[in-house]
Amino acid sequence: MSRRFRPNRNGINSLMRTPEVGAEVRRIAERIKASAESGGGEYRTDSALGSRRWRAAVIGNYVKHNDAEGTRRDLLGGLDGAE
Question: Which residues is 4 bridged to in the sheet?
């Protein structure tokens, strides 16, 4: 007899709202930002507790105006460098 895995969604949702998870989300966003800035841009982070979980964003490239491709490249590189 095989049993199907059923995640405890209420437990997962409550875990995703803890201060410890928020700190980890912010830490990862800061690492992405730092790695993206190594390409010469200037970025910032923003994080908040949403209705279901912590969220964070790396925003900007305030140095290279009108350089969407460069910003995209820096952010993607930041994701790779944030491991």
Answer: none
